[in-house]
Amino acid sequence: MATVLRSQCAFARLFVGKTGQILNNAIDLGVKLAPEPQSALLSKNYSNYAHSPFVTKIKKEQYEYEIVKKPPEWTYVERLLPFNTIPAVTPKETYPSGWIPPREEAKNLPFFLPRTKFHDLPIYLHVTYRGMRKISKIKRIEGDIWLLNDEIKKYLKEKNKRYVETRVQEVARFIEVKGDHVNYLIEWAHTKGF
Amino acid sequence: MTSVLISAIKRLHISITPPLRLYSSNVTVTPANTNLTITRKEWAFQPQYTKPREVWIENLDTVEEQKLGLFELHPSVYAASPRIDIMHQNVIWQRKVRWVSWAHTKTRAEVRGGGRKPWPQKGLGRARHGSIRSPLFRGGGVVHGPRSGKSHFFMLPFYTRILGLTTTISAKLAQDDLHVVKDLELPTDEPGYLEELIEKRNWGPSVLIVDDTDYAPRNITAALDNLPHVNIMPVYGLNVYSMLKHDTLVLTIAAAEKIEERILRLLHSDTRQQQRAFQLDQV
Amino acid sequence: MGSRQIVEKSLSMLRSLPRISLANIRDNPNCKKKSKRGRAQHGGDKHGAGNKGSGQRQNFMRLGYETGNNPFYLRVPQEHYYRGHHLKREYPPFTLLQLQTIIDKDWVDISKPIDIASIIKSGIYTFYPDQKQFGIHLTDEGLDNFSAKINIEVQWASEQVIAAIERNGGVITTAYYDPHSLFLLKNPKKFFESGQAIPRRMIPPPDAIEYYTSAKTRGYLADPEEISKERLKLAQKYGYDLPNIENDPNYNMLCERKDPRQIFYGLQPGWVVNLKDNCILKPKDQDLLQFFNS
């Protein structure tokens, strides 16, 4: 198609010179394809009053086209359309990006942290007051929330060697931990299999 | 709660297949001795931890209640944590979003008269004034009063509205105000039949019937025409205000499935394009 | 029942409470702060406007005015550090770590060539063509752990990123898309619904031609012979064995490239895609075919 044209036109701008201009949507890309203009689209210069042709009757009102039903290229079209729902992750041997899949054993625990729709853990960091307040929030908790709270406090106390303050909200199903403990919490959640 | 149901089933002398997941959707298992059907479902997004809910499938053919089978419901939609505050926010949103306040007061420029300085600036010993319609005067204009045609449109976040629906439906199910019905075929088009049915079955005086399509059999539409406290609506009209206003919620099987399917799809898809339409540009 | 499971507990509590109706629901306490006009000493009196002067009379001085002395914006001369910044092209970064994430999570299909449309479809990357952003700049964060054999087409990539992709047996190309094509790639569904014919992609502007015709940066206009030479050179420079992609079963997929005038894979300029009826309208007229194929 345009393979020959590519190499011809690549440096066409250099040969045109300083004053010459090749428009971005020029049909021949600056390379003179044929000595004589072949059709109305390629040749007429309408920007100059002196050299533009008189308006004549337009011969074709509508261009011919064919309708191809169930074309073989439809797979390419479907590839471009957005997802209906976020796809599930197929199991693989390794995940080089560091993503850890949830394990089935986690469902036997007295509490549960379901993954978000993007398959990530529901543990977030909220930073307010110009960075002076950091709160690690664990959302969407199911099961026994008070037991989960006790476990987290114990785990974080070991890691930080300090008492860690938490806030349990049963109705909204979240636990807020004072401070930035997101990495520890994610580690803990992965060990549990969530 | 499931154990109560299972003991009830045992008392009815029917056998249930063990709770194994069968890998084809909507498999109906008919046990040996009766014509009850128990439907175990395979959803696109399986419940992870919370157990699915089970409801009886009832009929509207006879005034007497007949249980036609058991039906499973997804916990994400029918067993959500009851959030009274989210329900309240949704109800307030529904009330305000379409309301336009037509209250109107005139400002000092709009009140008739008051173009002339009432008395000279100095010499009289009276307070200085520029017009008799200033807000200080009796009969003068109102300063920051209501101005006609004020809309109270605002959009509640997308997922707050979804949560409102799931919370309300779960609350209805938990308080025994949700009934799943096989279809809406009534034997007569008398409104009295439905009134008797509601009375007999101890459903609340007001009933909201939800069907999956917006056309229904003739009998029920004719009966409901004369019953203002019993209303029928399609799935796309389901809203928190209507569900709370009516005491009982009656869903057809198709409607229950459609609600489940739609809400699950929205909870598991990337809705940023849809939400962009209502996002504020201002910071 | 005494369940400690929060959802079961709350739903079973509801059974012994009155029916939830419009009359007995309320929002959380202190969620709505009533803002009233301040009265009296604290909050009232001057209402934050100070005493007399232009401030209290709400007749403020113009921005930058310094009550008479020569203001800063007139005193300090211009320094053209950022002259022409509004004309420069931008390429928002997309890391190799993010790319590996979408490959791991199956949001992009690596058995097909990856281009900017597939990366936007995955949802992890957005860019704004109307803000002079011209495509993806693949950066080297996550370079060490990157291991996926892909055929990827980006708009800008540095040497070590190219090396990281080719080390795993993949193919990387840098291609230019003009702003109109970028709008199409960002939201192909919206474009197909508009019923227009797929246009041709434009050639790069003069200051970008060098980048896209050089084999070193794997430009789409470069000579394929030069590119294979550069691949070998890069393998020697970074010290890895260049995998032989000719023997790969996915060789055809890895070598698949778009024509310089093509915007979408598999779809030629001039076609009209009808999503509703699942068909494609292709022009038959000679003039049109010549125009779109040029």
Automatic annotation (TrEMBL), chain A:
Ribosomal protein in keyword set: yes
Record InterPro entries: Ribosomal_mL49
This protein's UniProt keywords: Mitochondrion, Ribonucleoprotein, Ribosomal protein
Gene3D superfamilies listed in its UniProt record: SUI1-like domain (3.30.780.10)
BP GO annotations: translation
GO molecular function: structural constituent of ribosome
Main location: mitochondrion
Compartment(s) of residence: Mitochondrion
GO cellular component: mitochondrial large ribosomal subunit
Superkingdom of the organism of origin: Eukaryota
Family under the similarity heading: Belongs to the mitochondrion-specific ribosomal protein mL49 family.
Protein name: Large ribosomal subunit protein mL49
Organism: Arctia plantaginis
UniProtKB/TrEMBL annotation, chain B:
GO biological process, one term: translation
Recorded GO MF terms: structural constituent of ribosome
Keywords: Mitochondrion, Ribonucleoprotein, Ribosomal protein
InterPro entries the UniProt entry points to: Ribosomal_uL4 (IPR002136), Ribosomal_uL4-like (IPR013005), Ribosomal_uL4_dom_sf (IPR023574)
A Pfam family hit: Ribosomal_L4
Cellular localisation: Mitochondrion
Domain of life: Eukaryota
Gene Ontology CC annotations of this record: mitochondrial inner membrane; ribonucleoprotein complex; ribosome
Listed Gene3D superfamilies: 3.40.1370.10
Family: Belongs to the universal ribosomal protein uL4 family.
Protein name: Large ribosomal subunit protein uL4m
UniProt organism field: Arctia plantaginis
TrEMBL record, chain C:
Ranges of residues in domain Large ribosomal subunit protein uL15/eL18: 95-173
Domain of life: Eukaryota
UniProt entry tagged with the keyword Coiled coil: no
GO CC field: mitochondrial large ribosomal subunit
Key word Ribosomal protein present: yes
Record-level GO BP terms: translation
GO molecular function, one term: structural constituent of ribosome
Pfam annotation, one family: Ribosomal_L27A
Biased composition range(s): Basic residues: 31-40
InterPro entries: Ribosomal_uL15/eL18 (IPR021131), Ribosomal_uL15/eL18_sf (IPR036227), Ribosomal_uL15_bac-type (IPR005749)
Region annotated Disordered, chain positions: 25-57
Keyword annotations: Ribonucleoprotein, Ribosomal protein
Family assignment from sequence similarity: Belongs to the universal ribosomal protein uL15 family.
Name recorded for this polypeptide: Large ribosomal subunit protein uL15m
Originating organism: Arctia plantaginis
Lineage: Eukaryota, Metazoa, Ecdysozoa, Arthropoda, Hexapoda
